[in-house]
Amino acid sequence: MEVLPKLIVFSAPSGAGKTTLVRHLLKQKELNLAFSISAASREPRGNEKDGKDYYFLGIKEFKNRIRNEDFLEFEEVYQDQFYGTLKTEVERLWAKGKNVIFDIDVVGGLRLKKKFPERTLAIFIKPPSINELQIRLKKRKTESHEKIAMRVAKASTEMATAPQFDVIIKNDDLTQAKEKAIRVVQEFISKSVPSDEEK
């Protein structure tokens, strides 16, 4: 059995630190990771660049792509605000022989795991507590109190999905969380899994 490229999914409530961990893993050359750029129906914000931060499709184009079944997973996160993973994005990175790493919401993460059960490692990043999460979100100073309250309310629901993931990493000590993330990813990508032809 050959060692096929894998999917590494990081999901967490907003402010749990998943983006920091994903960026750290991308720096580890031996893991041979490439980041999957998500598609979004919204317009770019600030310095965001199309094809670098997201593929900005606009609402009409996003809905067309849904009809054409171009997504591996997608989610309407807020009304008329869609995010998703294009099949072509994963195919592009797999063609380069890369393991694909995702920074996506819990619903999308679990959908990918369901689609590629053997080839996906689903990791849930758990904040020390909801209270700590609220403090981190306030420190960012990027969102209104209403938006923070929405994210905190959503976090309770997201935390309830943690047991459905393969690995839970509690991020109360960033150094330890980084070490554990490298260890579990390294272990998973060195495992051979049966390709579709071999099943």
Number of helices: 7
The shape is: globular
- What is the CATH superfamily? P-loop containing nucleotide triphosphate hydrolases
Give me the strand/helix succession: EHEEEHEEHEHEHHEH
> How much β-strand is present in the residues?
15-25%
Strand count, sense and closure of the main sheet?
A: 5 strands, parallel
Q: What is the arithmetic mean of pLDDT? A: 90
Order of strands across the main sheet: 2-7-1-8-9
Number of domains: 1
At the first level of CATH, the class is Alpha Beta
Q: If you consult CATH, what is the topology?
A: Rossmann fold
- Count of DSSP strands: 9
Poorly predicted ranges = none
Question: Please, could you describe this protein's structure?
Answer:
The chain is α/β, with parallel strands linked by helices. It has one domain (7-189): P-loop containing nucleotide triphosphate hydrolases (Rossmann fold). It contains seven helices and nine strands. It has helices at residues 18-26, 58-67, 87-95, 106-115, 130-140, 145-159, 174-189, and strands spanning 7-11, 33-35, 39-40, 55-56, 71-78, 81-86, 99-103, 120-126, 167-170. A five-stranded parallel sheet has the order 2-7-1-8-9, sandwiched between helices. A four-stranded mixed sheet has the order 4-3-6-5. A hairpin with a 2-residue loop joins strand 5 and strand 6 (81-86). It is globular, with a radius of gyration of 17 Å.
